[in-house]
Amino acid sequence: MKIERAMIESYKLINENSIITIKSQSFSQGRYRKNEIEIYQTTFSNIQKLGAGNGAAINAQLDQDSVLKVTDSCTFYNCSTELIEIRIGGAITAVVNGSNSKLIISDLVKFEKCQSFRGGAINVEILNMGSCVVNNVQFKECTVSNDGGGIHALLRETGGTSIKSNWWLNCKNMIDSLTRRIGKAIV
From what superkingdom does this record's organism come (predicted)? Predict the structure, then answer.
Protein backbone atom coordinates (compact mmCIF):
# COMPACT_ATOMS: atom_id res chain seq x y z
CA MET A 1 0.00 0.00 0.00
CA LYS A 2 1.24 3.51 -0.77
CA ILE A 3 0.09 6.86 0.53
CA GLU A 4 1.57 9.85 -1.25
CA ARG A 5 1.06 13.61 -1.24
CA ALA A 6 -1.86 13.49 1.20
CA MET A 7 -2.87 16.17 3.72
CA ILE A 8 -4.53 14.81 6.86
CA GLU A 9 -5.45 17.46 9.41
CA SER A 10 -7.56 18.40 12.41
CA TYR A 11 -8.77 15.10 13.87
CA LYS A 12 -9.69 14.18 17.44
CA LEU A 13 -9.58 10.42 17.91
CA ILE A 14 -10.87 8.41 20.85
CA ASN A 15 -9.32 5.30 22.44
CA GLU A 16 -7.78 2.71 20.08
CA ASN A 17 -8.37 4.71 16.89
CA SER A 18 -5.41 6.15 14.95
CA ILE A 19 -5.41 7.79 11.53
CA ILE A 20 -3.55 4.73 10.18
CA THR A 21 -3.62 1.37 11.98
CA ILE A 22 -1.47 -1.48 10.66
CA LYS A 23 -1.77 -5.01 12.01
CA SER A 24 -0.06 -8.15 10.79
CA GLN A 25 -2.58 -10.92 11.24
CA SER A 26 -1.45 -14.48 11.92
CA PHE A 27 -3.03 -16.88 9.47
CA SER A 28 -1.50 -20.30 10.27
CA GLN A 29 1.33 -21.98 12.14
CA GLY A 30 2.80 -18.69 13.36
CA ARG A 31 2.97 -17.19 9.85
CA TYR A 32 1.90 -13.61 9.34
CA ARG A 33 0.55 -11.66 6.42
CA LYS A 34 3.37 -9.55 4.99
CA ASN A 35 2.58 -5.82 5.05
CA GLU A 36 4.51 -3.32 2.94
CA ILE A 37 3.42 0.25 3.50
CA GLU A 38 5.05 3.39 2.07
CA ILE A 39 4.04 6.88 3.13
CA TYR A 40 5.74 9.82 1.45
CA GLN A 41 5.25 13.55 0.91
CA THR A 42 2.31 13.40 3.32
CA THR A 43 1.36 15.80 6.13
CA PHE A 44 -0.36 14.87 9.39
CA SER A 45 -1.37 18.05 11.22
CA ASN A 46 -3.26 18.67 14.48
CA ILE A 47 -4.06 15.03 15.23
CA GLN A 48 -5.12 14.55 18.85
CA LYS A 49 -5.72 11.18 20.49
CA LEU A 50 -7.86 11.08 23.63
CA GLY A 51 -8.35 8.15 25.99
CA ALA A 52 -6.61 4.79 25.66
CA GLY A 53 -4.31 3.86 22.81
CA ASN A 54 -1.08 5.01 21.23
CA GLY A 55 0.24 6.73 18.11
CA ALA A 56 -2.18 9.47 17.02
CA ALA A 57 -1.16 9.38 13.35
CA ILE A 58 0.20 5.83 12.92
CA ASN A 59 -0.14 2.75 15.13
CA ALA A 60 1.68 -0.22 13.57
CA GLN A 61 2.19 -3.87 14.51
CA LEU A 62 4.84 -5.07 12.05
CA ASP A 63 5.37 -8.83 12.25
CA GLN A 64 7.56 -11.20 10.20
CA ASP A 65 8.76 -9.49 6.97
CA SER A 66 6.46 -6.45 7.29
CA VAL A 67 7.90 -3.03 6.43
CA LEU A 68 6.65 0.50 7.10
CA LYS A 69 8.52 3.31 5.31
CA VAL A 70 7.79 6.95 6.16
CA THR A 71 10.00 9.00 3.84
CA ASP A 72 10.50 11.88 1.45
CA SER A 73 9.50 15.02 3.35
CA CYS A 74 6.54 13.74 5.40
CA THR A 75 5.52 16.15 8.16
CA PHE A 76 3.95 15.39 11.54
CA TYR A 77 2.84 18.64 13.19
CA ASN A 78 1.13 18.81 16.59
CA CYS A 79 0.30 15.10 16.81
CA SER A 80 -0.37 14.00 20.38
CA THR A 81 -1.63 11.41 22.80
CA GLU A 82 -2.56 12.30 26.35
CA LEU A 83 0.35 13.02 28.68
CA ILE A 84 -0.75 10.39 31.18
CA GLU A 85 0.80 7.03 31.96
CA ILE A 86 1.01 4.37 29.25
CA ARG A 87 0.13 6.70 26.35
CA ILE A 88 3.06 6.38 23.95
CA GLY A 89 4.19 7.74 20.59
CA GLY A 90 2.66 11.16 19.97
CA ALA A 91 2.80 10.74 16.19
CA ILE A 92 3.94 7.14 15.59
CA THR A 93 4.03 4.01 17.69
CA ALA A 94 5.28 0.71 16.29
CA VAL A 95 6.05 -2.80 17.46
CA VAL A 96 8.60 -4.32 15.05
CA ASN A 97 8.66 -8.07 15.61
CA GLY A 98 10.53 -10.70 13.60
CA SER A 99 13.33 -11.00 11.12
CA ASN A 100 13.13 -8.69 8.14
CA SER A 101 10.47 -6.54 9.83
CA LYS A 102 11.45 -2.88 9.60
CA LEU A 103 10.34 0.61 10.52
CA ILE A 104 12.16 3.11 8.30
CA ILE A 105 11.76 6.86 8.84
CA SER A 106 14.06 8.87 6.60
CA ASP A 107 14.79 11.59 4.09
CA LEU A 108 13.69 14.94 5.51
CA VAL A 109 10.74 13.74 7.59
CA LYS A 110 9.80 16.40 10.19
CA PHE A 111 8.20 16.05 13.61
CA GLU A 112 7.21 19.33 15.26
CA LYS A 113 5.33 19.97 18.52
CA CYS A 114 4.40 16.30 18.94
CA GLN A 115 3.78 15.08 22.49
CA SER A 116 3.00 12.03 24.56
CA PHE A 117 3.71 10.39 27.92
CA ARG A 118 6.65 8.45 26.42
CA GLY A 119 8.17 9.01 22.96
CA GLY A 120 6.97 12.52 22.10
CA ALA A 121 7.21 11.91 18.34
CA ILE A 122 8.03 8.18 18.00
CA ASN A 123 7.77 5.16 20.25
CA VAL A 124 9.18 1.89 18.89
CA GLU A 125 9.51 -1.56 20.46
CA ILE A 126 11.85 -3.98 18.68
CA LEU A 127 11.69 -7.76 19.15
CA ASN A 128 13.11 -10.94 17.57
CA MET A 129 15.47 -9.44 14.98
CA GLY A 130 13.22 -6.56 13.96
CA SER A 131 14.90 -3.26 13.06
CA CYS A 132 14.31 0.48 13.08
CA VAL A 133 16.14 3.07 10.97
CA VAL A 134 15.76 6.81 11.61
CA ASN A 135 17.94 8.81 9.20
CA ASN A 136 17.97 12.49 8.22
CA VAL A 137 14.92 13.38 10.30
CA GLN A 138 14.11 16.65 12.11
CA PHE A 139 12.62 16.74 15.63
CA LYS A 140 11.54 20.17 16.84
CA GLU A 141 9.88 21.04 20.16
CA CYS A 142 8.62 17.52 20.86
CA THR A 143 7.60 16.95 24.48
CA VAL A 144 7.04 14.10 26.94
CA SER A 145 6.07 13.78 30.57
CA ASN A 146 8.22 10.63 30.92
CA ASP A 147 11.10 9.42 28.69
CA GLY A 148 12.25 10.22 25.14
CA GLY A 149 11.15 13.68 23.98
CA GLY A 150 11.81 12.84 20.33
CA ILE A 151 12.17 9.04 20.29
CA HIS A 152 11.65 6.29 22.84
CA ALA A 153 13.09 2.96 21.64
CA LEU A 154 12.72 -0.27 23.58
CA LEU A 155 14.95 -3.13 22.40
CA ARG A 156 13.85 -6.55 23.61
CA GLU A 157 15.83 -9.72 22.96
CA THR A 158 17.55 -9.15 19.61
CA GLY A 159 17.20 -6.58 16.87
CA GLY A 160 18.64 -3.20 16.17
CA THR A 161 18.21 0.49 15.75
CA SER A 162 20.14 2.86 13.52
CA ILE A 163 19.68 6.54 14.31
CA LYS A 164 21.94 8.89 12.34
CA SER A 165 22.18 12.32 10.72
CA ASN A 166 19.15 13.69 12.57
CA TRP A 167 18.42 17.20 13.85
CA TRP A 168 17.05 17.88 17.35
CA LEU A 169 15.81 21.30 18.54
CA ASN A 170 14.20 22.02 21.91
CA CYS A 171 12.80 18.56 22.57
CA LYS A 172 12.03 18.29 26.26
CA ASN A 173 10.85 16.28 29.18
CA MET A 174 8.44 18.47 31.09
CA ILE A 175 9.22 17.01 34.52
CA ASP A 176 12.74 15.54 34.29
CA SER A 177 14.22 17.76 36.99
CA LEU A 178 11.67 16.48 39.50
CA THR A 179 11.68 12.76 38.73
CA ARG A 180 15.04 12.10 37.06
CA ARG A 181 13.43 11.02 33.80
CA ILE A 182 15.82 10.68 30.91
CA GLY A 183 16.10 11.48 27.23
CA LYS A 184 14.95 14.95 26.27
CA ALA A 185 15.69 13.95 22.67
CA ILE A 186 16.09 10.17 22.64
CA VAL A 187 16.14 7.22 25.01
Answer: Eukaryota
